[in-house]
Amino acid sequence: MSITPLMPVYPRCGVRPVRGENCHLIDEDGTRYLDFAAGIAVNLLGHSHPGLIGAIQQQAATLMHVSNLYGSPQGETLAQRLVDLTFADTVFFTNSGAEAVECAIKTARAYHQHDGHDEKFELITFNNAFHGRTMATISASSQEKMHKGFFPLLPGFKYCEFNDLEAVKAMIGPNTAGFLVEPIQGEGGIRVGSEAFIKGLRDLADQYDLMLVFDEVQTGVARTGTLFAYEQFGIAPDIMAVAKGIGGGFPMGACLATEKAARGMVFGTHGSTYGGNPLAMAAGNAVLDAVANEEFLAQVREKGERIRTRLAQFIGNYPDLFEEVRGKGLMLGLKMKVEPRPFMQHLRDKHHVLTVAAGDSTLRLLPPLVIGEAEIDEFFDKLSAGAADYHAEGAA
Question: For residue 296, is it left (φ>0), alpha (ψ between -120 and 50) or beta?
Fold first, then answer.
């Protein structure tokens, strides 16, 4: 038998973490890695946050799972907190970001079809977006590398250029149900939606009675310096998918919607065996305890701006490697003039700092939001050393 016990769909590297301490991961051989990947924007409280650990331990000893056929005091508490903190009136809990986006897609379609407009099923999505790995969410993406091997794709999605409002207007037709957009494209290269573009989508949705659906799976839960990125654009979506940071490392997600947007999501239209389980709800409440306050959010903005300023100064030393700094808060990217993956591997293997490659030749920097001065200095020491010897090797 040649296939590995773990299905070989990931090109797994040699790093094999067995323990985490705040902003570091420790390999099984004892090697310490500075974690500027955070499980791809998941471990926003680092790897040993006492509040999160304590909440999960206490809930695990009390009750881990019950069917959604029963009342959920834990889910009701977390849902009410999210409603109070956001634009939303109602929440459906999921186990992942892809599930949250699936629920958002269904909610957008059901909004129209609940009133008999079955022709309204298409969502306009955007080139280089990433919405997940299910059939619906890969169909919502224009990336051919995600489509290969899984044809036929599901109908109902039209791809448009990101940040091009005129192109969006030209695509709206009788089948359009709404727009599905990341306010900042993560996998696509930390590409920030312009204020004119995001506000323009809101205006078009209002004008044509369409659903504006935000995918904040990567941007959400304090990552960009506000609890959710939509707040920085001065508008609100109708529907929003979140995950990653909302559980701090515990697998969970959520689909948030206004009462109007959720009018089609009635008994029997959607469900989940595990979504909203008490253990996940305990994790979500512990995360909000830590991040849903202005003091914490201000620290994220301040640390993000400090790192961004230092990065802008740093990249001037290597104009043949780096082009620009992108992002908001602690969702940052280095646009590179070379392929980012080999540089990411160089930083990981030689200098023991973990980052994430993305599209558009971008290196993602997604540290835990609890990162301190010592870890920031450590990162720049490692980045400087990595760029210097990578540059020297390239020159040689």
Answer: alpha
